Each structure stands twice: as C-alpha cells, then as structure tokens.
Amino acid sequence: MLVTTASGISPYDSGRWVINTPAGRHVLVNDGGAELYRILRHASTVEQAREVFNQSFQATLSAEAFDRLVQARFGGYAILQHDGPAVAQPEYIAGATQLLTPRAAGWLALPLVPLMRHRWYWGLLGAQVCFVGVVAAAVPMPTAPAAAYLVAAPLVCASWVVHELGHVAACAAAGVRHGGIGVGLYAYLFPVLYADVSNSWQAPRGVRLRVNAAGIFAQVLLASGLTVGYLATQLPALLLASVSIGVSAAWQLNPFLRSDGYWMLSDLSNTPNLHAAASQSARRAFSLAGFRACLAGRAKRPTRAELLLGVYGVLNRLVLVAVVLWMLSRHGQAIWELPLQLPALVRQAWQLHRWPQPQQLVALGFYAMWARFLVAQLVGRYRSYSLPAQPA
C-alpha cells in the first residue's frame, strides 16, 4: 500500500470522487484520479503501481514521469506514504476553539436525530417555516417590556447552539462521522459558532443537503415551539424570541457568505469551492482577453451552468461593493477620521477610560475587512507559486 491507511475514497457525484485525508482535507478527483488512488492503495511497490497504471490507461510512463504524476495528484495532502506534512488548508474560521467534544455534541443532538432521518424532512421544514411566518405576519408585535428582552435574548443565543446541534444530528442520522462544536472568528471579524461536519463531503448529495439545512430546521423547530407557547400564554417575550430566531434562521440562507445557504447552493449546483469557481468564471467573462475573444468571434459559447456560475460571481462582487458603499455613506466621516484617532482610542481603551463609539467600531471593521482582503490576496498569490497542482 502506497497511500496511508487513514485515507479513504467515496463517490461524490457522477464521474467525481472524494478522497478523505488523515489531516481532514477532502480532495475532489475525477474517475482517472480515483483509479490512480486505488492502484496506489493495492500496490506494494511503486514499480508495481506503475505497471498496473500503464496497463489500465494504456500508457508508457517512465518511473520518473509516473512519480511526477503521483506527486502532482496527491502530494501535499499527507495521502501518500512517506509524504511530508499536509499543507494547511485555508481557514474560514480563525482561532477555532472547541466547546463541545464530538461525543458531547452527539449526545445533546440525540433528540433531534429521529426528525433528521424522517422521510417527510423537507415537508416538516416547510410546514414549520410557514407556521412561524404566518403567525409573525398575522399577530401584531406587542409592546415588550424590558424584562421580555431579558427572557428573549438567552433564548435567541440558545437557538444558535441548537442550530449547530441540528447539523450534528443530521450527520448522526445519516451515519456520517461528525466532530465537535466550537467558536471562532469568521473572516477574522465576526464571532460565530460552528459544528465540524466536514465528513459530510463523503456522503451523497441528498444527505449533504439535509446536513446543511439541518441547522435551520432545528432553529425553526425551536421557533415553532416558542410560537405555540406564545399563542397559549400571550407572553410577549416568547413571540419576540420566536420572530428573532426566525430572522436568524433566514439569515443563514444568505448564499454570499459561507453559511448554510452557500453550502446548499454549492451542493445543488454540484460546485465545490463555489466562491473560487464563481470568481474565476466572472474574471474570465469580464477580462480583457475575454472581451477581445468576443469581438473576434472566437469566444466559446458558455453552458447554462457556466453562465449561472458567472452571474453568481458577479453578484457576489456586487454585494461586497454594496456593503462598502453603505459603510461609506453611513459612517464615512468616522472611517476617514479613524487613522488620526486610532492612537488616542487605543490608549483610552487600554486605560479603560472610554470604549470606542459604535461608528468607530464600524470604521475599525471597514479597515479590518480590507486588511484581511489584502492579506488573503498576498497569501493566495504565494500559495499559487508554492503549492502542488490540485487533483483534477
């Protein structure tokens, strides 16, 4: 065996396979890459693997050329025996800290597991959404006293934990190994809870969709219970919490952030790394070379999938532009003044004299967002020169 025993392979969709690596990476390969992996898995020597490969693919690769092929396909992922340490994957959640172990998360998610494997899963989700939405629209929001917010706020925070438990429960229902639940910083700015369900990549698309929607399912289930409680007791805190949780669940459908909506769209379109693929498609469509090809009549007619991917890439950029313009229009003065005020703000915060004002915090977020963007561009350029080619 020339690959590590801890790695494995499973089907992804028609003509594509996922290799699960010991480091937790998931490498997408085509039929040829999957066959090469199986050859390496069953061969005891490199020479034996080369002979089987040449027979299977009717090739005449030399030992040196075969070694280059294997390294280009699988090097840098700790898939191969005696390979170096795996190259770190991009971190979407920085400073991730586990709060619940996989065992504890699985135990807490047990009550949700039967619902996650129910054959009417999608129907139950739709019914709950309609119930919460209709009540929220039909019942005027009562004037809530301060005490109601003290009750609603913990319930909303608890719903975020329930959301992650939903993902864990869906994995357990499908027999997919899950990790724990933790907290980290999305985009190095926003505190978020997360559940490690990365092994769902090895499951069929239908299971992946259930896992990705399960957090919303669990949140809306809690909101439905609170709505029933409000209808029975008329306590404003319960309606306030229910509506807030419903809004929180709806926000998860945002397809432009790496939230549930993004992963569901990625699965529906069968496009792993959707952001990267859409950005690349948009760059090709609107590049100078692409414009010249159109003028010369040499441009290849895009498929429907390529066209939709390019539109998504453009919309993704427009959303970022809209956020930047909103920040400049609402907090432009604070953004321009922050560099001059920053030393005094840091000194005052350090001495506990005064905490930054909300508009100054928005300005800090503005600069942090652009700093992260520039760092990501630099790191991406560095990796493009230093990393091995991605498997096809």
Automatic annotation (TrEMBL):
The chain crosses the membrane at residues 120-139, 146-163, 175-197, 209-231, 237-257, 307-328. Keywords: Membrane, Transmembrane, Transmembrane helix. Signal peptide: none annotated. This is M50 family metallopeptidase.
